[in-house]
Design a protein that fits this description.
The complex is a heterodimer of chains A (159) and B (248).
Chain A (H helix, E strand, L loop, with lengths): L2 H26 L1 H4 L3 E2 H5 L9 E7 L5 E2 L5 E7 L4 E7 L11 E8 L5 E9 L7 H6 L2 H14 L8
Parallel strand pairs in A: 1-2, 5-7
Antiparallel strand pairs in A: 2-4, 2-6, 3-4, 4-5, 6-7
Chain B lengths: L2 H6 L2 H33 L13 H28 L2 H32 L9 H22 L3 H28 L17 H33 L4 H8 L6
Classes of the chains: A alpha+beta (159), B mainly alpha (248).
């Protein structure tokens, strides 16, 4: 083998080794790499119990209730399979809407209600003009279907 | 067939060719950016959810894309330099690093400015997309620091090339972070069909192309400086500087 080919092989093997090492490390750390936990996983009990964590999902349409004269708000979050009630006191981000994605940081109370100390809005990958959004429906229908499914029973093992 | 390639790899030839090529990248690049900016700010409709705030995408996405692109040029340059012992290739890698770092910073800054009103946070520690992009910035800093720390150019080339190649794994992580893990950052838009209004997308693609051309011109200019510095003791540089034209 020529020295050039040896160097090529060495770099190729090193890159392969790094890729494998990184892959294994990231696999082992998968739970830590997740920014939030899906509602279904929380319902199934796969969430940290000792510390605060984040849940993510869509805000169920019509579930947002504000307390008059305070910043208290309660709503439901669904991942299209399961739904979970959330309470929060504070200012909500601009993008917080019914049917839109949300990430809540906090912990689960004994009554199964998620007590959030921070609410972040999550935007999806769709960008469109307001008029288009009104007439267009694939997006809306997905959400309506998701929300409808979310309110009937919940089987976290399905998803 | 390969003569043009070998010719290009010769520093004096590249030095002259790059000077000729650079404006052919800069002028169309700036023109496309000007047009894309006008389209993005005044012509395309606002977003149905984000209103006008989404328009920062026209800087954010091209910057983020170039932050990865510049890294791949840096790592590829390092690898070619190591395998074929090509000095010009190392010069390309060295020239790409600061530009890549600048675009990484721009991507992080514009993302943060957009995140405050939209997500409700400037920055979230622990989000895979944000963390991997920040690590990318630190990789650029580490690369430049390593180069600066080694006086011998040949040794600096080798050491920094190894660092750049190792760091490629992070480029893959930045790209797939929103697919492999849950993230506050939204998923892929540009290369998916039906996720973006056609006018919005056209303007975005124009901006990406404009930024890329501008990046190409910046890279060519930086490579010229790098070549001139590396070849400062050679005859062709001396001849060029001492010639009546004073070099160009």
């Amino acid at each position: 083998m020529k020295p050039r080919q040896q160097r090529m092989l060495a770099i190729g093997l090193a890159a392969l080794g790094i890729a494998i090492a990184a892959g294994l490390t990231l696999r082992a750390l998968e739970d830590n790499m997740m920014f939030f936990v899906e509602v279904s996983d929380v319902v199934a009990g796969n969430h940290p119990s000792e510390r605060n964590f984040r849940i993510g999902g869509l805000v169920v349409g019509g579930s947002v209730q504000r307390e008059e004269g305070s910043l208290d708000v309660s709503f439901e979050v669904t991942d299209t399979a399961c739904t979970m009630p959330v309470v929060y006191s504070g200012v909500l981000p601009d993008l917080f809407r019914e049917g839109q994605g949300v990430v809540a940081h906090g912990r689960i109370g004994d009554d199964g209600v998620f007590v959030a100390d921070k609410i972040l809005a999550k935007h999806d990958e769709n960008y469109m003009a307001p008029e288009v959004a009104e007439s267009l429906s694939k997006h809306q229908k997905d959400i309506q279907a998701a929300v409808a499914r979310g309110t009937e029973g919940c089987n976290p093992n399905d998803s | 067939m390969w003569t043009w390639f070998h010719k290009l790899a010769s520093p004096p030839h590249f030095y002259r060719t790059a000077a000729l090529l650079s404006p052919w990248f800069a002028v169309p690049g700036l023109a496309l950016i000007a047009w894309g900016t006008w389209q993005g700010l005044f012509v395309v409709p606002m977003d149905y959810q984000q209103g006008d705030a989404f328009r920062i995408i026209y800087v954010h996405v091209p910057s983020a894309y170039l932050s990865l692109m510049a890294y791949m040029i840096m790592a590829t340059g390092g690898a070619i330099g190591l395998i074929w012992r090509m000095k010009l290739s190392h010069a390309v890698a060295a020239a790409a690093a600061p530009i890549g770092a600048a675009f990484t910073f721009l991507a992080l800054a514009t993302g943060s400015i957009w995140g405050r009103p939209m997500w409700g946070t400037w920055w979230e520690w622990g989000d895979p997309r944000m963390m991997s992009e920040l690590i990318l910035l630190f990789l650029y800093f580490g690369y430049m620091a390593l180069r600066a720390a080694i006086d011998d150019t040949a040794k600096a080339d080798k050491a920094s090339a190894v660092l750049a190649i190792v760091g490629v794994v992070n480029v893959v992580i930045v790209h797939f972070s929103v697919e492999w893990w849950s993230s506050l950052h939204q998923g892929q838009t540009v290369f998916k069909r039906g996720t973006m209004d056609a006018d919005m997308k056209t303007a975005l693609l124009i901006m990406i192309l404009g930024f890329t051309l501008l990046f190409g011109s910046m890279l060519l200019r930086r490579i010229r400086t790098e070549v001139l510095y590396r070849e400062r003791r050679t005859r062709w540089v001396r001849d060029m500087i001492l010639s009546p034209k004073g070099g160009g």
